Amino acid sequence: MSKHKIVGKPIPRYDARAKVTGSLKYADDFILPGMLYGKVLRSIYPAAKILSIDTTEAKRLEGVKAVLTAKDVPNNETVTRFGQSTEVGKGFEGLYRVLADKKVRFMGEAVALVAAETEEIAEQALDLIKVNYEPLPGVFDPEEAMKPGAYLVGESGSNIIGEFGCSQGDVEKGFAESDVIIEDTYRVTFQDHAFMEPESGISWIDDYGVLNIRVSSQVIEHFRDVADVLGIPHNKVRYIGTIMGGGFGGKEDITVESYLALLTWYTKKPVRLVYNRDETFMCHSKRHPFVMKYKVGAKKDGKLVALEAELIGDSGGYPYLSAWVTLYATVNAAGPYVVPNVKVKADVVLTNNTFTSANRGFGAPQPNVAYESIMDELSRKLNIDPVEMRRINCITTGGALSTTGQVFNTYVAFPEAAEKAWEALGEPSDSEDENIKVGRGLAVGLMSYGRMTFLHDTSRCYVKLESDGSVLIRSGIPDLGAGQISLLCQIVAEELGVPMSKIRIYHSDTALTPLAGTTTATRQCYMSGNATLKAAREVRSRILKKAVEILNVNEGNLDIVDENVVVTYDPSQYVSLNKVVKACDTAGIELFCEAQFNAPFTPVPDLSNIRGTTHPDFTFGAQSAEVTVDIETGQVKVNKIVTCYDVGKAINKAAVEGQMEGGSIYGMGYALYEDYQLEKGVPKTLSFAEYRIPSSLDVPEVETILIESGGGLGPYGAKGIGEPACSIIAPALINAVYDAVGVRIKSLPITPDKILKALKEKSL
Amino acid sequence: MHTNTRILANKFEYFAPKSLAEALNLLEQYQEKNIKVLAGGTDLLVKMKTVDLNVDYLMYLKDIAELNFINTSNGLSIGATIPFSHIVKEDRIKTEYTALYEAIQAIAAPAIRNMGTIAGNIGNASPAADTVPALVAFDAQVLIENKQSKRTVLLKDIFLGPGKTLLRPDELITRIEVPQVKPNTGSAFIKKSRVKADLAKINLAVAVQRNGQNCEDCKIVFGSVAATVVRAENTEKLLKGKALTEELISQAAQGVADEIKPIDDIRSTAEYRIAMSREMLRDALNLAWARTYSEAKPNLKGGGE
Amino acid sequence: MKKIPIKFTINGQQREALVQPNDLLINLLRDELYLTGTKYGCGIGECGACTVFLDDELVLACLILAVTVDGKEITTIEGLARGKELHPMQISFLKNAAVQCGFCTPGMIMTAISLMKENPDPSEEEIREYMRGNICRCTGYTQIIKAIKEYAHSMKG
Ligand SMILES: Cc1cc2nc3c(=O)[nH]c(=O)nc-3n(C[C@H](O)[C@H](O)[C@H](O)COP(=O)(O)OP(=O)(O)OC[C@H]3O[C@@H](n4cnc5c(N)ncnc54)[C@H](O)[C@@H]3O)c2cc1C
Ligand code: FES
Ligand code: FES
Q: What is the pLDDT of residue A1?
C-alpha cells in the first residue's frame, strides 16, 4: 500500500472520550456487592528478623474477615516471570517473597494481610497485629554490600546477584594509543515512576470457582504466577486488565494481585485493595541507582579508541528484574559509538533499600548519563563541536554496537538526529542579567524496543469482521495510557478500510483475549502491532478474494476505502464492504483470524561476555536543551527542550509526539528534581511534597522532531518510542549546565545546592 | 505508624457553630477533651491522615459568617476564615501590602488558596508558612479570644516552635490586624523552593520605608530557616537611617546569614540557605525599594523560583 | 459515631446523604454517589486529581469533610457534559491529544475551566501558573497547555 488512509494521522484515541467525561472505570473505580477492603501490614524496619507475629486480636475485631501471614501462603517463595516461553537460567530469576518470612529485607515489605468490611476496620486491624522484630544492621550501600564480610541481605552467601560483562579489542592497548583520557565516576539515584494511579485491583470468585482479578497491571501473564502462589491450576485464575493510570514499568512486577488472590481465596468474598500514595512510594520498585566508573580514551581528531566501564547497580531487598536491567545497562554502556576497544563489567547487588526493578528506559538511561557527559568533556577538551563529535563517532547504518557487536542493517539515524536536535535549538537566548548564564547541551542515545531475544517473545491478536461490517478485536494487550489499544484499532482501520468508530476492542483479559504479552520493553507497537497487522491482513485478503469475483479485477488492483472495496485505478468501480461480507458469509468464508507474531529467537548469551544479538532492534535519537543557570542561587531553568527520534513510522502522530514530550519531561524530572531518598534504608520521600516531579510551571514547551525512516520492525516500519523517549535528556541537561557555568554535575539530580557548591569549589 | 490518606480513620464528634459566641462556648466546654478547630483543613486534615494526630472533637469554623471578612479601610483586618483567594481580590493587598500579596500567590495552587486561611497558616505554625514572614514584616497582630476575654499578640511572638503556638485550648484566632502601612513604604516577598509549587526551602519578606535616599525604617523577616520565623534585627539596624547604597546592601547581605543561622533538612542544606539568604536579601531590598514610591507592580508569577 | 444527614446539589441534582463526621467528600462522591471520575491520587492535596467545584470554586475533595458540603453545590467531571454534548474544554482536550492515561484529566479539566472563568484570555505563563497544582506524569503538559490555549482562543473568536 502506498498511501495510508488513517495510519500517520493524529486521530483522537479510542479511549479518550471516556477519559474526558470521567466515565472510564479504572481499577479503583469498581465496586462489588459485599466487597471487603484489603490492607497490607508493612515492615517498619529495613532489615530485621521476624521473631513472631500475633494476629489473635486483629482476628477478633468485629468486621475482620481474614488476617494472613507468610504461613498462610501456599507458595510464598516465588520468582517474577513475565510470560517468557524459555528457561533463561538462574541468573535471570527475580526471586521474591509474597509475604516476609523470618527475615525482612526492605522497609515496607509486606508482612501480613487483612480483609475487613470497611477500610476503617481494616486499618484498625493492622494496628492490632503484633509483630515482634529483632532489628538487624542491614547494608545500604551497594559498594559496601559487595565487600567480603558484608551484612547478608538474603539467605545466600553473597549479596551480588548478577555479574555481566562484554568486551572487544584490547582496552589497555587502546588507552596507550589515546591522546586524551577522561576518567570519572558518575552516580544516578533512585527514580520513582510516580504514576498518578496508585496500584489497585479487585478480586472475586466466579460461579465456577475461578479467581477473577480486575487489576491495573502491565503484565496480565502474571495470572500464572498468582495461580502458582495459591497452588491452583493456571486456568483457575483470570486477569482482567484495566486501562492504567500510568505504569512506566512500576506495574510490571506483581503489585496487589497476590494479596487480592489470597484474601479472596480465604474469605471467598470480593476484595478491593488500593495503595495509599505513601505506600506506593515505599512499596513498589524504583529505577536502579548506579555507580558508574568510566574511562574513555580518544585521539586528537576526536576518534574514540577505548572505553572501560564498571557499573554497580543497587537491587534493593530482592532481585526482581535487576539482572535484566543490568544486562540492558551493559549492552548500552558504550552508547551508539564506534569504539574499537571496549570492556564493560556490571554487578548488581542486594541491599536493604527499597527494591529496584523496571522503570521506563530500563537500564539505558543510566550509562547514557555517563557516556554523554564524557563525550561532552571530550569535545570541549579537543575543541570539537558537539555535533561533529557525534559525526565522527556514532555508528551508522550497517554498523554494530561496540559492546556486543549487534549489527544494524536498517537505517541508523546518526548523525541526522544529532544535527536536527542541535539545529532546532535556534539562536541562543540572551541574558540581561549578568548572574544568569545561558547554556546549551546535546546528547544522543539509543534504546532497544522489544524484549530480549533470548526470551522468545510472541504476541497474538484476533480480528473479526462482523456481518454488519463492524469490527471486533481481541487482544491481551494491557494499555498503560500510552495508547496501546488505540494503536491496534488504527491498524485494523487502515487494513480493513473501516472508520475507528466501527471498531471495538476487547483487551487484556486472560480468559477471553489471546495473550499479547507484556506492555513492557516498548514492545507492544512492534509485537502486538505486527500480530494485529497479520490478522487484519488475513481478513483483508479474504475480503479482497471475494471482491475479485464480484468486480472481476485483480486482487492487486483492489483496496478497501471508506467501507467500500474499490478498484484503485478507477474508483468509480466499487462494491460496498457490506456486500462482500454478506457474500463471504453466504459462501461460508470465515472473516476472522487469530494471528501470532514471533520476535527473532536467540540462545541465552554468555553473561560474562555478551556477544551478538540481544534485542530485536534499537531506536536512535538525540535531545538538546537550553537552560539558564543563576550563579547566585544555582537555580536551573530549562528554556527549551528538543527531542528528535527516528520512530520509523508514526502510526498515530499525536500519540508519538505525546510520548516524546512526556518522556522528555519524565527524564527532565530525573535530571533536575527527582530523588527518592533513604536514610539507612528508611525512605524519606513518601509524598509528592517530598518527591517532586515537574509541574506545568517547571517545564518548557517540548519541540518534537520525528524522523520517519520506515526502518523499524513494527507495522509500516514503525519503531518503539515509549521508553527511548525519556532516556537521553538527562545528560543533555548536564551538558547544558556545564556550558552555562563551567561546572559538571556528576550525580543526579542536578540540584541548585550541588551547582552552588561546585561553583564555589571551582572559584577556589 | 502506617498512614491512610484514602480515608480519615480518626473518629471524632463534629460541631459546626454558626456564631462566634457559640464557637467560644464549645471551646470552653471541650477544652480539656482534645478539641481542635478546622478551617480550610489543608493542614489539619493532612496531619490527621499522615501523622499520629487524633482528635476527639472537631469544630468547623467556616460556617461562622462573622469570621469571613476582610476590611481594608484602615490597615487590614482579616477574619479567621476568609480564604486566601478572597483576600488577594482586594486591590489594596496588591498595592500596599505587596509582600503579603506575593506570599499568598506563592502558596501551592488555586484550589488550596480557595480553601486555606491565614489563621490556619498561623495556627499550623510551620516554619515554612509563607504568609507569616510577610505579616510579621507589616507588624501584624493576632486577635485571640476565648469565652471570657480577648487578647492581642504580636504575630511574631505567637510561635513557640514548629507546630506550637501560645494559644490555649479554649482560644481561637478570630482576626489578624495589620497596621496601615506608612507612606513611601515598599515591600517584597521571595521564596525559593525545589520546584515551583512547593513548600519553601527558604522565604523572605522585606518592607522598607523610604525617606529621600535614606531607608527610614525596614523589616527583614526570614521563614524556613529555623524553628520559627526569624527577624534579622541587627541587619535592620544596620540599614536604618542610612542611604540605601549598593555597598550598604552588600554589607547587609553579608551579615544576614550569621544572624539567622539556618538549619539542614530534607528540602535543603544550611549551606545552601546561607548562600541563598544573601542573594534573596539583596533582591528583596532592591525590589521593595523600587516599590517605595511607584505604584507597586508585584511579581504576579508567585510561586518559588 | 452518629450519622449526620446532609443535603446538597450534585451536578445540578438535589441529593441527600447520611454521613459520618470523618467521611471525606472524595469518598462520598466515589463510593456513595458512584461518581468515580473524581480520582484519588495522593489524598493530601498534592496532585489535583480530586479537583471539583464547590459553590463554583475549585477545591480538593480529598481534604474536605463530607458534612461540610451541607447546603452547597458540587460539580464534578460527570456534570460538565450536557447529555451527549461535551463541554468545549473536554472537546479541546480530545482534539489536542491532551489525554494520555487520563488519570489526571478530570482534575485538569476542572481546573482549566476555573481558569477560564477567572481569566478568559490567559497568557501561556498564566496558564502554567494556574495549573501548577494538577500534576500529570504522562504528557509533559505541552498538549494540555495547548488544549487550554486553543479553548481560550475559540471563546474569543
Ligand atoms: C498541597 C499543599 C501545599 C501547600 N503549600 C503551602 C505553601 O506553599 N505555603 C504555605 O505557607 N502553606 C502551604 N500549605 C499549608 C496550608 O495550606 C496553609 O498553612 C494554610 O494556611 C492552612 O490553612 P487552613 O485554613 O487550611 O488550616 P487548617 O488546616 O484548617 O488548620 C491548620 C491549623 O490551624 C488551626 N487553626 C485554624 N484556624 C484557627 C483559628 N481560627 N484559631 C486557632 N487555630 C486555628 C487548626 O486547628 C490547625 O491546627 C500547603 C498545604 C497543602 C495541602
Ligand atoms: S487526591 Fe486530592 S489532591 Fe491528590
Ligand atoms: S495523562 Fe496520565 S497523568 Fe496526565
A: 42
User: C69 and C111 share a domain?
Assistant: no
A476 and A432 share one domain: no
* C75 and C96 inside one domain: no
ipTM tops the 0.90 cut: yes
Distance from CA of A142 to the nearest CA of B (A): 23
Structural domain total, chain C: 2
CA distance B272 to chain A (A): 6
Residue B197, pLDDT score:
60
CA-based nearest residue to A197, from A218, A177, A183: A218
Please enumerate residues of C whose Cβ is less than 8 A from a Cβ of B.
1, 4, 20-24, 27, 40, 42-45, 48, 51, 57-60, 62-65, 67-68, 111, 114-115, 125, 129-130, 132-134
- Across the range C46-64, mean pLDDT stands at 98
Chain CA centroid to CA A270, Å: 31
Kindly state the average pLDDT of the residues B58-65.
98
Which residue range is the domain that position A684 belongs to?
A: 290-452+604-763
CATH class of B185-290: alpha beta
How do beta strands A64-69 and A682-683 pair?
unpaired
Cβ within 8 Å, pair B108-C45 = yes
Q: Are residues C59 and C113 in the same domain?
A: no
Rounded to an integer, the average pLDDT of B193-203 is: 76
**What's the CATH number for B13-60?**
3.30.43.10
pLDDT reported for residue B296: 47
We report the CATH number of the domain holding residue A625 as 3.30.365.10
CB crowding A542-568: b at 16 or more within 10 Å, else e = bbbebbbeebebeeeebbbeebbbbbb
Residue B305, pLDDT above cutoff 50: no
| Alpha helices in chain B, H assignment, sequence order | 20-30, 44-50, 84-87, 91-96, 98-105, 110-115, 118-124, 131-137, 233-239, 246-260, 270-290
- Measured between beta carbons, which residues in chain B are less than 8 angstroms from residue A283? none
- My answer on whether A85 and A48 are in the same domain is yes
What is the rounded CA–CA span in Å between residue B178 and residue A612?
74
**Residue C127: which domain range?**
88-156
Coil, strand, or helix at residue C33? Answer: coil
What is the CA(C74)–ligand 1 centre distance, in A?
23
For residues A487 and A614, is the Cβ–Cβ distance under 8 A? no
Using an 8 Å Cβ cutoff, are A355 and A321 in contact? Answer: no
Ligand 1 closest atom vs CA B131: 11
Helix (H, G, I), strand (E, B) or coil at A402: coil
Query: What gap in Å lies between CA A595 and CA A531, rounded to an integer?
Result: 6
β-pairing, A237-241 vs A211-215, is parallel
Q: Which fold has domain B65-178?
A: 3.30.465
Mean pLDDT (chain A, rounded)? 96
pLDDT digits (tens, 9 = 90+) for A145-202: 999 999 999 988 999 999 999 999 999 999 999 999 999 999 999 999 999 999 999 9
CB A197 within 8 A of CB C103: yes
Burial pattern A645-658, b for ≥16 Cβ within 10 A else e, equals bbbbbbbbbbbbbb
Last residue of a domain, one of C12, C45, C79: C79
Q: Any idea what the CATH number is for the domain that residue C132 is in?
A: 1.10.150.120
Q: pTM, whole model, 2 decimals? A: 0.97
A571, A585: one domain: yes
Q: Would A187 be classed as within a structural domain?
A: no
Q: Does A658 touch chain C (CB under 8 A)?
A: yes
> Beta strand pairing status for A271-274 and A36-42?
parallel
- Who's near A552: CB < 8 A, 6+ residues apart? none
- pLDDT at residue B294 is higher than 90: no
- List chain A residues with pLDDT less than 70: 1-2, 84-85, 90-91
User: What are the boundaries of each domain within chain B?
Assistant: 13-60, 65-178, 185-290
Closest in B11, B196, B305 to A695, CB measured = B196
When CB atoms are compared, the residue of C21, C24, C133 closest to B112 is C133
